[in-house]
Amino acid sequence: MRASLIQIAVDPDESVKARRQRAASLIAAQRGADLVVLPELWPVGAFAYTAFEDEAEPLQGPTHDIMAKAAADAGVWLHAGSFVERAADGTLYNTSLVFTPEGERAAAYRKIHRFGFDKGEAVMMGAGDELVTVALPQTTLGLATCYDLRFPEMFRGLVDAGAETLIVSAGWPERRRAHWTLLAQARAVENQSYVLAVATAGTHAGVEQSGHSIVVDPWGEVLAQAGAGEEVLAVEFDPARVATTREQFPALKDRRLGLAPPRL
Ligand SMILES: NC(=O)CCC(=O)C(=O)O
């Protein structure tokens, strides 16, 4: 299976409209891949909180339509990263979209863990509450967005729902890049799954982005990792290795659920 991770740079000097067109061109160049993945909030920037209200779109808005067409034109499964969704009741969500190679929307995932503690996304956006998996002919994807990477129970939930390839679409700061690489490998090892984690490049809202998108196999080996700048990370991987890894080293079968709490 061939995947292309588009580590697009989010530059405040480029308009959202221009970046959407540029993303579509980058996707067009990936014809021949099976799966293309974009990062979190690449139209506006994951830390550009002051722009969230103005750049919010309905689920089926400009980002949706341009990405649907880009998937169909390139004939690829497309995880289009996320955008700021304004729901019918006015609530904002950090929403990822997946399209089929025919340009049909296959899934929408609203980020479950919002980042920012008492500010930013955490107070400006609603939280999703549904795990999302997407069955491709070669593998089943489990969807996660950025800060979700820190919550292993969410990934275990995706694996329990059938996920074999975990997608992490992110806008991760350079300051915490060591966590990014470590957590991507940890999620792959503990879930005996591929992890395809794509981050943005560039600096926006004063936050330098990490880049270093990464693909990890079910044994925890790094198959490929990008540098800091804008880049397309292309990899080929064998989805059947998830089943063989889980058969040959069946740690997932040794889980002990429902343990008694400590006696006081
Ligand atoms: N956009 C995000 O979710 C950022 C997450 C982050 O910076 C971190 O977990 O560290």
From TrEMBL:
Residues 1-239 form the CN hydrolase domain. GO terms for molecular function: hydrolase activity. The keyword Hydrolase applies. InterPro entries: C-N_Hydrolase, C-N_Hydrolase_sf, UPF0012_CS. Keywords: Hydrolase. It comes from the Bacteria. The keyword Translocase does not apply. It holds the Pfam family CN_hydrolase. Belongs to the carbon-nitrogen hydrolase superfamily. NIT1/NIT2 family. This is Carbon-nitrogen family hydrolase. It comes from Streptomyces sanglieri. The lineage of its organism: Bacteria, Bacillati, Actinomycetota, Actinomycetes, Kitasatosporales.
